[in-house]
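User: What would this chain look like folded?
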Amino acid sequence: MPAKKAPSTRKPASPPAPPLDAPILVDAGDWSADRGPLGAHVSVAGGTWESAARAREISATASQIFTKQANRWLERDIDAVEAERYRAAMRETQVRWTCAHDSYLINLASPDDALRAKSQESFRAELRRCYALGLDALVSHPGNFMDDRASGIARNADAITEALEAEPGPTRLLMELTAGQGTVLGSTFEEMADLLSRIPATLQHRLGVCLDTAHIWAAGYDVAQDYDGVWARFGDTVGFARLGCLHLNDSKAKLGSHLDRHELIGEGTIGSEAFGRIMRDERLTAVPKILETPKGDAPAETDGRMLKLLRSLA
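Assistant: Here's the prediction, encoded as structure tokens.
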């Protein structure tokens, strides 16, 4: 018998974006009831401007994109033509808050001088593309320290400072709390607060955090059974004023596992009740909320179903 082929681990290609004036067929709930921006990470396949139609298709009021291929070092610039095409397309949507997620390859905490320099170049390019497109925020993971944790935090803070000083613009940098696997930094509120405190006061207005529910769950913060306690600790340590975005993801992984495994809302180990509390929490009402849940073969239908659920929970 012929050997069985291993299942492919590649993500399916994104379906073509619909025309911007196409009828909206996906039932994602009533976007006009959103008390704060709510949406999903949407594909830029075909061009950054195509993300607008994909956001419109799911009645999103917030969107997140990649401004380049996230798993490649190859950088690119955004010219005035692309920037205006993106902005014009977004004006045809209900989106009122936008962000990008930076490359997964970037490691500003690396002790390897060559990798850190390459990461710094890529990170600065990410900031420039966000500025060109007029995005509200750039979401970035803290790096891997590899050798010594304290040294890694210091290197990360120095690199962020250098990049923000070199790249002007109103885009806010949101450092994302992590699951804490291996030598990854930023999995505790205390460590994230420490990292941000090392940035000069003159740059603090450009800094914030992104809290991913799947990440903090994997890091050991029980938002299901100790919702009030987790948010009290966050408020005391990081501060709600720093909270610039929420990534709403259920988790395939166990509490405290340090594994970053996203799942559909209500179908993972966190459960829908915690997300209902987040959607109704007055402290979080105005905070932009972005889905990064699995999309399967029908991204718009799946994201639409998740957004409808979140809107119903609110």
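The radius of gyration is 19 Å. If you want, I can go into more detail on any region.
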